[in-house]
Amino acid sequence: MHYEHLIQINDPNDPLLTPLSRTQLWRGLLRRVEQPQEFLVGVVTVKILERGEGWLKREMLLGNLTVVDHITLDIEQRVHFDTAPSEQHQGGSFTMQIEEPTPDSLFIRFSYRTPLHEHRPEDTTADDAYFSDYVKTAYRDTDIDAVSWIRELAETGELED
């Protein structure tokens, strides 16, 4: 399954929306990588297993599920997760891409690729469609919550130098 959605971060036409700098947004995305327990319910432990220039390998325990991610960091541009398949999990990938179509108009494009199959309409059962919609809604809601948390962190000064 491939699922993608866009969340607007800054809107120069909305005076009620406190703008974030690209650096603040980037620091918030890094925090989601290094401290996922702040962003995801059920994270028991997080270990950074390895780290190099522009990448890290992380292990997370979510209840009884162990997830190992190789994460690539393109500074102030993109975070890409490759999740290794295991006996408990089928693996997949996830990307958070910062986009700035016009000055001061920031967005994040969230892209998910999982082994869940998208069926042709004639092959799709009601259960398949329901499950696919459920997963997409969960991804979107998690990302909306993450952006809200990044905004809170920025407002309290935790994403500053």
| Side-by-side strand order of the widest sheet | 1-7-6-5-4-3-2
Structural class: alpha+beta
The whole-number mean of residue pLDDT values reads 90
What coarse outline follows from CA principal-axis ratios?
globular
Q: What is the terminal separation in angstroms?
A: 38 Å
| Count of spatially separate domains | 1
CATH superfamily: START domain
Low-confidence stretches are none
Query: At the first level of CATH, what is the class?
Result: Alpha Beta
Radius of gyration: 17 Å
Number of helices: 2
CATH architecture: 2-Layer Sandwich
Q: Might you state the CATH topology name?
A: Alpha-D-Glucose-1,6-Bisphosphate, Chain A, domain 4
Provide the helix percentage: 25-40%
Please indicate the percent range of residues in DSSP E strands (runs of 2 or more).
35-45%
Notes on the structure:
- It is a single chain.
- With 161 residues, the protein is an alpha+beta fold.
- The protein has a single domain, classed as 2-Layer Sandwich (Alpha-D-Glucose-1,6-Bisphosphate, Chain A, domain 4), CATH 3.30.530.20.
- The chain is 27% helix and 38% strand.
- The protein has two helices and seven strands; from the N terminus they run E-H-E-E-E-E-E-E-H.
- The chain has helices at residues 22-34, 126-155, and strands spanning 2-8, 43-52, 55-62, 65-74, 78-83, 92-102, 105-113.
- It has a seven-stranded antiparallel sheet with strand order 1-7-6-5-4-3-2, with helices on one face.
- The protein is globular, with a radius of gyration of 17 Å.
